[in-house]
Specification:
Elements lengths: L17 E6 L4 E6 L11 H9 L12 E5 L5 H9 L4 E5 L3 H13 L6 E4 L10 E6 L7 H12 L2 E12 L4 H10 L4 E7 L2 E7 L9
Parallel strand pairs: 3-4, 3-6, 4-5, 6-7
Antiparallel strand pairs: 1-2, 7-9, 8-9
Length: 211
């Protein structure tokens, strides 16, 4: 199966469901996965690293009330954030319909269905803004497509919002950080381990309106 199938809206590979676990110091999730979705056999290393080493929600100036997982897959990041961010509603966005269905199923199984919404980009209100984006973004869709996706969603951060992203070094984390900073989203490397970077990206300032 090629990587491109992870980013198809309707994977053609035959279904092969399985159960996996995500065990973190503060969160335990039982997850149903399937063929045709990203990292079906286990929660991938980048996502695990992000969820273990990202800043604590309590470190933020104010608790987030709206959180986005961009490229949510079957939901490990979104569901973890739903457990951690007590005051937040969490949205998960993906193009893969099989992954979205799994995320909805997993939210119910882990008791956070009422705190989560999983949908394609077109099905989320264009006026919705997010205090926090937490994501293992879809780097393999290509640089131009990735830049387009990040532009759309980073510009939906609230004025004091931020994003925490995990990106592999050899897949261009440093050049991506430079591109985001050059385009107005101040980006800082928070952590680096085993070839992964955790980046913090701040909402870019809206242009001043002059008379």
């Amino acid at each position: 199966m090629t990587d491109s199938q992870y980013f198809d809206s309707t994977p053609t590979v035959a279904s092969k469901r399985q159960q996996i676990e995500l065990v973190l110091p503060d969160v335990y999730l039982e997850l149903t996965t399937d063929s045709g979705v990203f990292s079906a056999g286990q929660v991938d290393k980048g996502t695990r690293y992000l969820l273990k080493d990202m800043p604590a929600i309590g470190s933020l100036p104010t608790p987030p009330t709206s959180v986005l997982d961009l490229g949510c897959g079957y939901g490990p990041i979104a569901l973890t954030m739903a457990k951690r961010a007590a005051e937040a509603h969490v949205w998960g966005v993906d193009v893969n319909e099989r992954a979205l269905a799994l995320a909805i199923e997993n939210a119910a199984a882990n008791g956070v269905a009422e705190k989560t919404t999983f949908a394609s980009a077109d099905d989320i209100d264009s006026e919705q803004r997010f205090d926090l984006i937490v994501s293992n973004p879809p780097i393999r869709i290509g640089k131009a497509a990735l830049h387009e996706v990040l532009t759309v969603w980073l510009d939906r951060l609230t004025p004091n919002g931020r994003a925490w992203l995990v990106v592999q070094k050899h897949l261009g984390s440093d050049s991506l950080a430079e591109w985001m900073t050059m385009n107005g989203w101040a980006t800082t490397r928070l952590a680096s381990r085993k070839g992964f970077r955790i980046l913090e990206v701040l909402a870019r300032a809206e242009p001043e309106i002059t008379a």
